[in-house]
Amino acid sequence: MHALIVVAHPDQDSLTHTIVRHLAEGIAQPNDDHSFEIADLSAEGFSPEFTVTDLAVHRRDVPIPPDIAAEQKRIDRAESLVLVFPVHWWSMPALLKGWIDRVFSNGWAYDEGVGIKSVKRLRHLNVHLVGLGGASASTYERRGYRDAMKTQIDHGIFDYCGAPVLTSELLLGSEPADVVRHLEAAHTIGRELFNARPAKENQAA
């Protein structure tokens, strides 16, 4: 089985990239027939700007441009999509959000429009979200940030396309003990990636 790991962080020495490496090591366990590809959006120079061409794609007025088609093909090759990102202002970075804005296009991730029956087209794709934040877990709970992120990302994006979110993890804290715990968690997520199953409510949706 194959996973596409998408990371949005400009610093290769960041904890975010270290998490990606540990997660990938977990996927590539000895004697397992599992593979992965890492899409480093910053290093690859992906443009997150939603342009007039992207709007025309959404309206189905023009074909999907080659750069976006290439990203969609990378996802199509995978059974699992893993997004690893630092939390910026209680959400994902603009680079990753722009990747979703442009790549999860009408006609590929979902169908909608006048005279078109609405269809969720990514029911086959399992999604795993791993966010890294510096604030404490109590801050996320007290202010409702965790629930807000689940609403806008897990439900607002992926449920709209039919893709079940099997992992929705926030790795919080940046002290040395926190980092050790985060790396262990990342390795475990990778090791168990293809064993995860959708919740019953997602299976019935």
Radius of gyration: 17 Å
Head-to-tail CA distance between termini: 24 Å
> Which whole number gives the mean pLDDT?
93
What would you call the shape?
globular
CATH class: Alpha Beta
Number of domains: 1
Query: Strands of the biggest beta sheet: in what spatial order?
Result: 2-1-3-6-7
What does this structure look like?
The two termini are 24 Å apart. The protein is of the alpha/beta class and 205 residues long. It has a single domain (2-204), classed as Rossmann fold (3-Layer(aba) Sandwich), CATH 3.40.50.360. Helix content is 44%, strand content 19%. Strand 4 and strand 5 (119-120) form a beta hairpin. The model is unreliable at 201-205 (pLDDT under 50). 30% of the residues are buried. The longest helix has 17 residues, at 145-161.
Which helices and strands appear, and what pairs or packs with what?
Layout: E1 2-7, H1 15-27, E2 35-40, H2 41-44, H3 52-58, H4 66-76, E3 80-86, H5 94-103, E4 110-111, E5 119-120, E6 126-133, H6 137-143, H7 145-161, E7 165-172, H8 176-191, H9 200-204
Parallel strand pairs: 1-2, 1-3, 3-6, 6-7
Antiparallel strand pairs: 4-5
Helix pairs in contact: 1-8
